[in-house]
Amino acid sequence: MNKLSGRQLQILRKILSSSNTRMEDIMKEFDISKRTVYREIASINEFVKNYNSKIVNKTDGLVIEGNVADIEKLKLDIVGYRSEFETEERRKMILSELLQLNEPVKLEYFSKKFGVTTSTISYDLKELEKWIEKQGLTLITKPGYGVYISGSENSFRKAIANFLYENFDTADLIDFLKTGYLAKNNIEKNIDLRLLNLIDYDTVLKIEKAILKLKSQIDYEIVESSYLGLVVHLALAIKRLQNGETIEMGEDNLQELKKTNEYKFAKKLAKYLQEELDIPIPEDEIGYVTIHLIGAKYRSTTQNYNDKDIEIIARDMIKEAEKIFDVSFSEDEFLEDGLKSHLVPAVYRLEMGLDIRNPLLEDIKTKYPLLFEKSNRVCDVLRKKLNMDIPEDEVGYIAMHFGAALERKKEAAKRYNIMVVCASGIGTSRMLMSKLQMFPQINIVDVTSSIKLKDLKVRDDIDLIVSTIPLDIKDKKVVVVNPLLLKEDVEKLKNALNTDFIMEYGIKKEEEGNFKKEALHIANYGKRILELCDTITYMTAKGENSSQIIEYILKNLIDENLINENQKEQIKGRLLKRESLGKIVLPNKGFVIYHCTIENIDFPLVVVGKVIEEVKMKNLVGDYEKIRTAFLMVAPEGDREGIEVLGDLSMSLIEREDLVNTLNEAQSQKEVKEKIKEVLLKKFYEEIKRIIT
């Protein structure tokens, strides 16, 4: 069961005890943003789902929905519930204090403060030591003397900055620095606010005032991510200076920095800070501010860049991206200009070891996972050129540049109407359709079986037929491809349509359809799942080839009264007349799928047959392999939902390795039924969710 934090526990108790608690009430009481409230509610819901309950935001406030008895049990359990404050949050508090203390503190101090034993504190310190060592610092514990952290001032500052970034969303930190929604007089209310004692808000206001004076004199913008790094650095530096801690920079480095224009600006900023804070700023501190200002430099055009290395890096990254994304960017002048403008300050910050923070990182990774993954591979060019690791925040910025370039191409691209054809309309067409849907230029207007192509002449809305089987069609352009849509198949499509393809890198939302029609579809889809679950059959399958295996399975289905002799001959005829078209052998799985539709059957059928003889078949990539399991699917001809259920099941066999593994290892009908039922119910839930959302 998920553990609640101290704040989450308080929020849950508040909602349970009041029938009209609003989001705004929680924001006000705990001094947190709306985004943070949503995040906390999501975590609490993970906890309360163990009581079959859920917090829902309604017009009159937040309410707990669920069975009355379950909610009452939740209320009783919450009375004596101890939050996670004793572990993660307590450790954060200990670390926060240790990073700020300049003298040893005894374990008894933390023991009394948090109401736990000294042995618990000792264990906490052992866990914290791993993080402390990663920051280049040392945790020192001396019996009778106390515990403290030792290390260079530079390491201390980096550690404190990392601690802040790890415990707060970048966006929340920006909100704090810009708006101060976490008022100083409320800073003791909860763990998140106490952590921000690392940064004094009054100091932040004065820093921003000083930066504002400077901004009117410099000839470039300070972008948001650089602004955050600069303000955090200055806030931490000033607090450390006030505590008598100073940082040193090598004399040679300092002399080099003094030659730059940014040093002059840094000196002015130091003067403004001294006026605001009444504290002297040493030369070495001015040197570090200079590094931040150089790293923050941003220009909107490339006219001022003389650095050929940056130009080479940008062009090499674009060349690599063209291979990875399989798209030409040669005509996009904005991409190269934008990359060069970004890389000048980014490369400097990376080389100087300055933090790069991207407030949109989590959104990019969540909403555009494939774009992020491919952009990360593009960043290998940068890793090789700079001989250093590239943080995810920087990868996120690179993804934004290539994502924008792909959007520009997508807007300019024409859409093509495609019909997908396979032998039965069940198996291979579903596999192929899932691949084709990654290309936004392709609009799939129909999915059909080869025997239903007689009405094709009246269709004037089709630009191309993409088929998994050869077709004898004269008046329409046809491309025959592998159901897995291999790289050479994509090239065939490009040539047939005379276009580049841009993949869909975001998580696609379904278009809203007619609700009544969709509701009826869902009802029929669910009915077909229930029928299918009742007829799933597990058996051994004897035979030395497809013909013998199919014959054996169908005879068993007659014995089970699931089909009659006439239906058996129809199924066998469909599967064996054009055997290679009604069969899919999954590569390296030992798993063959037989699929077809017939007219005079009332419900879909699924059979899992354990092949007990030595049988080898050619898989989808052309290699022969030993078959362990024969999987038969039969759907009623023209039954949209029946065909869709079996199509979704066949897609799950491709996408979910655990499904194939379970079916290969299954020893009973119960195992097979439970696994297939689990997969189909998940698909059913996804269908419902698609329509509702």
TrEMBL record:
<dbReference type="Pfam" id="PF05043">
    <property type="entry name" value="Mga"/>
</dbReference>
<dbReference type="Pfam" id="PF00874">
    <property type="entry name" value="PRD"/>
</dbReference>
<dbReference type="Pfam" id="PF08279">
    <property type="entry name" value="HTH_11"/>
</dbReference>
<dbReference type="GO" id="GO:0008982">
    <property type="term" value="F:protein-N(PI)-phosphohistidine-sugar phosphotransferase activity"/>
</dbReference>
<dbReference type="InterPro" id="IPR002178">
    <property type="entry name" value="PTS_EIIA_type-2_dom"/>
</dbReference>
<feature type="domain" description="PTS EIIB type-2">
    <location>
        <begin position="416"/>
        <end position="505"/>
    </location>
</feature>
<keyword id="KW-0677">Repeat</keyword>
<dbReference type="InterPro" id="IPR050661">
    <property type="entry name" value="BglG_antiterminators"/>
</dbReference>
<dbReference type="InterPro" id="IPR007737">
    <property type="entry name" value="Mga_HTH"/>
</dbReference>
<keyword id="KW-0805">Transcription regulation</keyword>
<dbReference type="InterPro" id="IPR036634">
    <property type="entry name" value="PRD_sf"/>
</dbReference>
<dbReference type="Pfam" id="PF00359">
    <property type="entry name" value="PTS_EIIA_2"/>
</dbReference>
<protein>
    <submittedName>
        <fullName>PTS modulated transcriptional regulator, MtlR family</fullName>
    </submittedName>
</protein>
<feature type="coiled-coil region">
    <location>
        <begin position="656"/>
        <end position="683"/>
    </location>
</feature>
<keyword id="KW-0804">Transcription</keyword>
<keyword id="KW-0175">Coiled coil</keyword>
<feature type="domain" description="PRD">
    <location>
        <begin position="198"/>
        <end position="303"/>
    </location>
</feature>
<dbReference type="GO" id="GO:0006355">
    <property type="term" value="P:regulation of DNA-templated transcription"/>
</dbReference>
<dbReference type="InterPro" id="IPR036388">
    <property type="entry name" value="WH-like_DNA-bd_sf"/>
</dbReference>
<keyword id="KW-0808">Transferase</keyword>
<dbReference type="InterPro" id="IPR016152">
    <property type="entry name" value="PTrfase/Anion_transptr"/>
</dbReference>
<dbReference type="InterPro" id="IPR036390">
    <property type="entry name" value="WH_DNA-bd_sf"/>
</dbReference>
<feature type="domain" description="PTS EIIA type-2">
    <location>
        <begin position="528"/>
        <end position="679"/>
    </location>
</feature>
<dbReference type="InterPro" id="IPR011608">
    <property type="entry name" value="PRD"/>
</dbReference>
<feature type="domain" description="PRD">
    <location>
        <begin position="305"/>
        <end position="412"/>
    </location>
</feature>
<dbReference type="GO" id="GO:0009401">
    <property type="term" value="P:phosphoenolpyruvate-dependent sugar phosphotransferase system"/>
</dbReference>
<dbReference type="InterPro" id="IPR013011">
    <property type="entry name" value="PTS_EIIB_2"/>
</dbReference>
<dbReference type="InterPro" id="IPR013196">
    <property type="entry name" value="HTH_11"/>
</dbReference>
<dbReference type="Pfam" id="PF02302">
    <property type="entry name" value="PTS_IIB"/>
</dbReference>
<dbReference type="InterPro" id="IPR036095">
    <property type="entry name" value="PTS_EIIB-like_sf"/>
</dbReference>
<dbReference type="InterPro" id="IPR003501">
    <property type="entry name" value="PTS_EIIB_2/3"/>
</dbReference>
<keyword id="KW-0010">Activator</keyword>
